[in-house]
Amino acid sequence: MYSKAELDAWDKEYFWHPFTQMKVYEAEDNLLIERGEGSYLIDIAGNRYLDGVSSIWLTVHGYNHAHISNAVKAQLDKIAHSTTLGQGSVPAAVLAKKLVEVAPPGLSKVFFSDDGATSVEVALKIAYQYWCQKDADNRDKYKFISLQEGYHGDTIGSVSVGGVESFHSLFKPYMFPGYKAPVPYCYRCPLGEDRETCGLRCAREVEGILALYHHEIAALIMEPGMICAGGMIDVPAGYLSYVRQLCDKYDILLILDEVAVGFGRTGTMFACEQEGVAPDILCLSKGITGGYMPLAATLVREKIYQAFWGEESKKFTHGHSYTGNQLACAAAIANLEVFEQEDVLAALQPKIDLLRQGLEEFKALEHVGDVRQRGFLVGIELVKDKSTREPFPPEFQLGHKVILAARRHGVILRPILDVIEIVPHLSVSETELQKILTAAKRAIEEITQGQGSI
């Protein structure tokens, strides 16, 4: 058994953490999680923390859900993994069928990979190869249109269609060319419009790009409902359905990245359902296994799959060593069974309402500029000046200070710069949900008090 002092030291000396400035991390008290129960994470000292971000949007039904845990254990007694290159497996076949059954209509084939970024890489490669093999005249359709402030992962392909400058700008020499449309960020509209009167001008800007360049665009990619890592930006109603119509009009594919927003996070199984939109390609990961195992899936329409059918030269030459991993697929099957057995989406609706009511109190806080919610996805944007929407200086690291304050109140949150995100487990109780809101509000008040003069 390792001592707490040893683990603390090794964590800081050897482990390079993702999306973390290690100089800051090594100067702070580090949090080392040992186990989880329901909505709580428990550290090596036995302290309990209510997880308000579901381990970055992964865990769906809480930690150590008996049904999913038992499914993984049962699969482990059979086999942990065997390749799916040229052969199948029982859980991969079952899961593929189940995903097609719950997915938006028209999606008929499932390609498995390992995480959200790879699901997007698969989608981009499929889209380009589809046009090449559909018609020789379409080989010029190799570019993609995506949104400023969009985020689709950290591999070179997914970064190329991303738009978060702080994440991606350094790697521009490696990124392939494409088109960026204005982000539908109504609180800070890049077009200077007002949400109530703009008539979705941001979507009309997309049409302007497509009208000029559709002949060289393979697909449009976006997150429906909420643009998450770009700042928890709530996509305005009507935008997605407008974009679907544009893709049909200009004959380009629509790729929807539901890696973060899928599996109930927005109140429906998939966010695109809320506008009755079905994509040509759907990217899934994060909540697909309930937060148990790494797994991703890219679903496509039959017409796309058929373009790869036939000659050896048409096959999709892409894969991952752990494609269709049996343990992960077993977890994902059990995850979907929990949705059905516990009627999760119906049980979620009153909690979404409770969350909405609780967030009203945040709007009165001096340094809360905007509160954005889509189901169980919440972003609270903190500003230095509420009237002008002026942000705090980046060097103040306001968001980071707020989440450390929330941790002192027993709740784990995460910032996206100065946007505080709240993404609870779908299984969170109403009492736990209220505790998350209370801790977040107290933390914001404590850290921002008297800071308007900075």
Précis, in short:
The protein is built from 15 helices and 17 strands.
Question: What descriptors fit this protein?
Answer:
single chain; 454 residues; alpha/beta; Aspartate Aminotransferase, domain 1; Aspartate Aminotransferase, domain 2; 2 domains; seven-stranded mixed beta sheet; 15 helices; 17 strands
Evaluate the radius of gyration: 22 Å
Strand order of the largest sheet: 4-12-11-10-7-5-6
The second-level CATH architecture of the largest domain is 3-Layer(aba) Sandwich
What's the structural domain tally?
2
Beta-strand portion reads 15-25%
Low-confidence stretches: none
Q: Report the count of strand segments.
A: 17
Number of helices: 15
Q: Can you summarize the main beta sheet?
A: 7 strands, mixed
CATH topology category name of the largest domain: Aspartate Aminotransferase, domain 2
Which term fits the overall shape? Answer: globular
Gap between N and C termini: 47 Å
Class from helix and strand fractions: alpha/beta
CATH C-level class of the largest domain is Alpha Beta
- Overall mean pLDDT score? 95
User: Helicity level, as a percent range?
Assistant: 25-40%
